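Q: Fold this one first, please.
A: Sequence and structure below.
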Amino acid sequence: MSDKPIRPATEPQPVEDVQGDGRWMAQHTRFVQECKDAEPDVLFVGDSMVQLMLQHDIWREMFSPLHALNFGIGGDTTCNVLWRLQNGELDNIKPKVVVLWVGTNNHQHTAEQVAEGILAVAQLLTSRLPKAKVIILGLLPRGERPNPLREKNSAVNGLLRSRLPRPGQVLLLDAGPGLLQPDGSLSQRDMFDFLHLTAAGYAAVAKPLSELLLQILEETPEERRASLV
């Protein structure tokens, strides 16, 4: 029999320190320390799409004022985020909203497996933070023109959309279609390498996300509880 896990994208794993400089674990350790010192209303967690927000004005102007923490690490997969969250990155904090953006680095997994991995992270978040809303940001299109990886990301979003109850504690926000040009291509104005976002690209994603966050944060506790039923 095979020893491979049936749901490989749901297996918590730290990143192997191939370079030998301990960068990934050092970032994780810093996040765990931040949990001891901060009282965030919003937690962002995921891969480089989350991490690189810190380099743009949208973080300082739109998200930091919401008492937000950014726990993004470039290159992370669902497996890595699961490990981080199970090993201290949710200790001592009770955010009202968690923004989850991960999955595009799960190259070895099928669309079905990636969706399972993302939903496993969301399930962990809701079990540890039963009063919080979770916003899953859909995977963005990648590559200048249509390609298999873009089709895979789109399939992941479709699976998430079909499996998330509405309304519910976990919401899906897919801002990807707004980045596509009429001919189906991506512009370097929005994605400088056709994967990572520019300031303009982040602005396009941030607008609907900010509106949703403000809507949730302005709910009364009674309204929030009612929406979770």
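Q: Good. Now the second chain.
A: Here it is, same layout.
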Amino acid sequence: MKRFLIFTTKILLLTLLVLVVLDFVYTKVYLQSSNRGKIGYVYNSKGRVYDVVILGSSRANNHFVAPMFEDKGLKAFNYGMSGGHLFEASLFLKLMIERKYIIKNVILEADLNLSNEKESESVASKFMPYIHDSKVIASHFAQQPDFWTNYYLPFYRYIVFEPQIGFREMYNDALKKPTKLLDHLGYYPLGKKPKANMKNDLTNLKPLHNKYYEEIKHLCKINDINLIAVMTPMCTNTKGLDYFEKVHQMYPEIHNYEKAVEGDEYFSSCGHMNDAGARKFTSIILNDFFK
């Protein structure tokens, strides 16, 4: 029995050592990568200067054509994240401020994402490699139910979020293989889909007094950043469009552009404009805020 316990203890200690070593190697790779995604691009940088930073979900990523801002002489980048929530948008802004970015304007897509305060697992997981290296990230995740296991158990987060930050992604990061996520200054254009579903139902969606939207407002205020919060277009055949009016009643400072672009020819899906629609919408934003 004694020999069995000794053997078991050795196996456990060896396993723990392997996990610690793997955790160190994976994290070291991510701490040196900046060309595969927007999180690494921000985290492994410092002191950038922007006239315009764009934040939000895919409805920011696909709707704001960052090169059009540059054509007007405005240094800009679209940091919208497909699948992201305001939880991640707030953390993005915190990281930029921590990295001493100088930002004049933040354009924030704040519409459907106001209806929840949850983290987006697919996006939030990509911050996990930096959780021990950044007090900002650790603090932001501190109240999440899985914080203890992700923070204190070595290599656990790389196992749980294997599709996002596991071996394949780590390996590609180590080889510094670029992706298309940083092309077009972060803007991701969509094409026209002939068989796309041009119907949507927002009837059961309710905007919240969202804590992460409030965080973004506070961060902009104390860092002298002009916040431009907007609601972006939806296709015409959408039920429950009064959701956008409810948002405006709750937060009058959020500009309602839900009807700024109309016509299915401008949409790739009901909630996402194609490149032609995005360019038309971006022109309107430039004209309204950056003459």
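Q: Anything worth noting on the second one?
A: Residues 131 and 151 are 7 Å apart (CA to CA).
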